[in-house]
Amino acid sequence: MRKILKDALIYIIVTLVIWGVMAIISPGKGLLAGETAFKTFVNSVEIVVGVLLIVGWIQVWVGPQTMSKFIGEKAGWKGLALASTVPMFMGGSLFIIFPLLKTLRDKGASMACTMAFISAWGGKAPLLPLEIEFLGWKFAVLRILFIIPFAIIMGISSQFILDKLQKRRQSTKSPGLDVSKE
Amino acid sequence: MDVGIIYLAIAFILYIVSAVKDIKKTKQALIAFGKILLTVLPVLFLVFILMGIVSVFVSKETITSWLGSSSNVFGILIGEIVGSFALISPIAIFPFAGVLRDRGAGYGALVGFVMTGILIGVSTLPLEIKMFGRNFTIVRNALTFIIVFLMGLIFMLVL
């Protein structure tokens, strides 16, 4: 809690300094910038509050534990299918996702699933209304449609590349093994 | 805004269902909401002010020439690079991208910025390397960058 307040204070101070410098350089433009900022804020405050309420709800009812039940030990196509879709409904930042996936990986989730999971999480479906508001529904819908194939391709191709890298490393480390593997 | 009210209504219903089922979890959800709000509001303050500054001080021509549809492929690359280095939370990415769009940025560059903004973080690289190893980190970030570039090309052609 303390860290949140500290970070908040830092952001507010940095913002005021930037804005202050602009206002000193050109008072008229500084005021106009503030006006634009305020208008954008008023336009989006309802959406932001609504979305964050839903994100908070999801965090409690669809927490990491629920998620690991889905994807943790399952392998193969079913796991990949889940890993390419479900995470897009999760919130959080990469700082939260990485430790969660580390746990899943230790529990036996495949490399492809791990990669697909991170990529699908980039879909950010709970933020969809915000995206529609600022970038238009065509952009938002097209991006969401692309997320699933994107996640699957990421999963499969990265597994392929990482397997190759692993093999090459093993063969350079112990050339004797390479022959028997071929 | 009508959309905002719809979302508030959905949230309201979700919380009523939640309260009926489990009052303790509902409290947790509200606390989680409060924490996110406290984290996000100052960031949005910064982003909105930056947006205001960009829209007042940076001319439309500048953004169009860097990120516009006429700058084609390079616009996507620039969008991706900016997104990779941007230290802003996903919630703030969309409003910022919105300003860039209004100032003439092309959709290819925008999707590059949004996707790398969410998925590639220079600030999270050390954590990723520590948890998953160097190979994993390099492959994930490089592949993401490449596939998002292809997405940018498609967005450029379709939208």
Notes on the protein architecture:
- The complex is a heterodimer of chains A (182) and B (159).
- Chain A has two domains: 1-46, no CATH class; 62-181, no CATH class.
- By secondary structure, chain A is an all-alpha fold.
- Chain A has nine helices and no strands.
- The model of chain A is unreliable at 176-182 (pLDDT under 50).
- Chain B starts with a helix and ends with a helix.
- In chain B, 86% of the residues lie in helices and 0% in strands.
- Chain B contains eight helices and no strands.
- Chains A and B meet through helix 1, helix 2, helix 5, helix 6 and helix 7 of A and helix 1, helix 2, helix 5, helix 6 and helix 7 of B.
Q: Key terms for this structure?
A:
A: 182 residues, mainly alpha, 2 domains, 9 helices, elongated, disordered C terminus, B: 159 residues, 8 helices, 86% helix, globular
